[in-house]
Amino acid sequence: MVVQGPEKKNLDMTKKETADGLNWSVDVSFDTIGQYTYFFVLYAGTSVKIYCDDDGYYGEGKVTDLTDLQAYDLIVYKAGFKTSEWMKNAVIYQIFPDRFYNADTSNDQAQKFARGTEYEFIKDWDTIPENPEQEELNPDSYPSNAFRGDGVWGNEIYGGDLKGITERIGYLKALGVNVIYLNPVFASISNHRYDASDYSKIDPILGDLGDFQELVKVAKENGMHIILDGVFNHVADDSIYFDRYYRYLGQDGTVGAYPYWAYVYDYMSDNNADKDTAIAAAKTYFKDNYNVTDFSYTEWFKVEQTYMDGDVKDSIGLRAGKPVYAYDCWWGYDNMPVIYSTNGSEYQTGNWGEKIIGDTANNKDASD
After folding, report:
1. Which of 44, 127, 217, 258 is the S-S candidate for 244 at Cβ 3.0 to 4.6 Å?
2. Mind spelling out the 3-state secondary structure of the chain?
3. Is 95 strand, coil or helix?
4. What span, in angstroms and rounded, lies between the C-alpha atoms of 239 and 194?
5. Which helix (H) or strand (E) segment is 326 a member of?
6. pLDDT for 116
7. How confident is the model at residue 365, as a pLDDT?
8. Distances in Å between the alpha carbon of 296 and those of 89, 279, 299, 324, 363?
9. Distance CA 70, CA 60 (A)
10. d(Cα 329, Cα 338) in Å, to the nearest integer?
């Protein structure tokens, strides 16, 4: 058995005959919590095969070659971890904030652009959101009351907000709900908000920090807990952390990973310089021109000294018209760069927890 992750292990397994046949097993313990993967190596003389996941969804498994490896997942958690009492037998109501209730129309268009395109604001609440795939594949059967827009996924805004949830707490309580699970509410570049642009801010279309604090306060008064959907293994390319479109240069004294590494690689190419020299030049450039003092985001991502496949060019920013440098992204979607994994696990949130809205809210006496 091969285990990969924060700890790497090659484990010999023990064979035991049972009434059902042969069982192979091994006992293993870990010192480090986190996300691991594992698979099995089968030996028969000089022949070597791999036994692993067959479909990515924890199926029965398959025997294959190393070139077709798809490992199983394994989560190692802290010994003695106990589920909170309030979570046991909880009645959980999940809310997609943009589509729950619009109580404050003044913030409906608080943000109008994302990734260089405009949001599409839907006035009729009963209009079905656009499905670009079905719109193209099945135009004849596409619902007549479905929105037909620019063909961009996730950019329709209906106007639901945090005040809308607060106003309907009584309704939720009457249903027996005692836990509200919110889809992401951080500032982002889509209606689903799984592509955060700034974890320290509430998306302005949903409201502000005061609205969030009020929601938590009212929920607590009614015996409810709030769970935030925290997506911390990837962010938006149009974010303060990555900043592919050069919108955040110097904000809070920071520079995004993309402008930084693009400058480094451009400098190496233009000046025939080594990497250390280019890094020193980049830090001087961003300090002198944008008052950057915090370069920590540059270590969050893997930006490569190669270009993206295809004729992809930077559309805006200091490198407009130049090829885009390649970077690791979630499931191949270049609008969601992946935060660099440390020792095989997701980036340790403890290293940047102060940048998350929950901590900010707690510091302002929202609720525990």
Report:
1. 258
2. CEEECCCCEECCCEEEEECCEEEEECCCCCCCCEEEEEEEEEEECCEEEEEECCCCCCCCCEEECHHHCCCEEEEECCCCCCCCHHHCCCCEEEECHHHCCCCCHHHCCCCCEECCEECEECCCCCCECCCHHHHHHCCCCCCCCECCCCCCCCCEECCCCHHHHHHCHHHHHHCCCCEEEECCCEEECCCCCCCEEEEEEECCCCCCHHHHHHHHHHHHHCCCEEEECCCCCECCCCCCCCCCCCCCCCHHHECCHHHHHHHHHHHHHHHCCCHHHHHHHHHHHHHHHHCCCECHHHHCCCEEEEECCCCCECCCCCCCCCECEEECEHHHCCCCEECCCECCECCCHHHCHHHCHHHHHHHCCCCC
3. strand
4. 12
5. strand 325-327
6. 61
7. 42
8. 41, 13, 6, 22, 23
9. 12
10. 5
Closest CA to 193 of 252, 224, 147, 239: 239
CA distance 116 to 363: 34
| CA 202 to each of CA 22, 130, 184, 226, 240: distance values in angstroms, whole numbers, following the listed order | 55, 25, 9, 15, 14
CATH class of 87-232+355-363: alpha beta
Neighbours of 348 (CB within 10 A): 13
Question: What's the confidence (pLDDT) of residue 347?
Answer: 44
**pLDDT at position 113:** 76
Q: If we measure between CA atoms, which residue out of 56, 73, 63 comes closest to residue 41?
A: 63
Rounded to the nearest 10 degrees, the angle between the axes of helix 275-290 and helix 257-271 is 130
Question: Residue 144 carries which side chain, given as an amino acid letter?
Answer: S
Q: Residue 154's closest CA among 333, 317, 290?
A: 333
Q: Check residue 118 and give its pLDDT.
A: 86
* pLDDT of amino acid 60: 85
The two structure tokens encoding residue 171: 């309704």
Low-confidence ranges of the chain (pLDDT < 50): 343-348, 364-368
Compute the distance between CA of residue 303 and CA of residue 329 in angstroms, rounded to an integer.
10
pLDDT score recorded for residue 21: 87
Instruction: State residue 363's pLDDT score.
Output: 53
| Per-residue tokens: 147 | 């929105």
Q: What is the pLDDT of residue 321?
A: 81
What's the token pair of residue 240? 């303060």
Domain ranges of the chain: 2-76, 87-232+355-363, 251-346
